[in-house]
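seq:
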Amino acid sequence: MNKPESLRAHLLATVAEFKHNPDRLLIFINNGKVRCTSAPSLSFEYSFELQIILTEFAGHPDSVMLPLLGWLSVNQSELLDNLDKVKNGFQFEAEILNKDLVDLSITLPLTEKVIVGQDDQGNTTVKHPNEPQRVAGYLDPNWKPGAQGNTSEWFVPDGK
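struct:
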């Protein structure tokens, strides 16, 4: 599976607080399933809940949610596009440790396709294709943490 590590790398690169404390970002895979239809190939799909835990997080939740939504728009866009899935969104829970710190848990329902085939020499090949790409214009790929280090700045066009 490639998505858990992809999301981890994205959050480490875009959430300011993790630059100094990467060990406070924990990722777990729960309720994993493999779906295979016994088609002519053994291609299959992973289906799982990705749990992200931020321990002793001092930042604003927006500084995590915005990069997370940006990652989802590229890597699991049906969570943003499909009305049935948008209705439920993804889940989060927080334990407030004190006025400045929380433990935050976010759970994302993810899938990942695996295409199994053969190359020209008859060897088995395994590929993880990219998701269909759609990137909204307001999701700036040059997102940078705010000046205070714990806040986010996203550049939203004024609609002109």
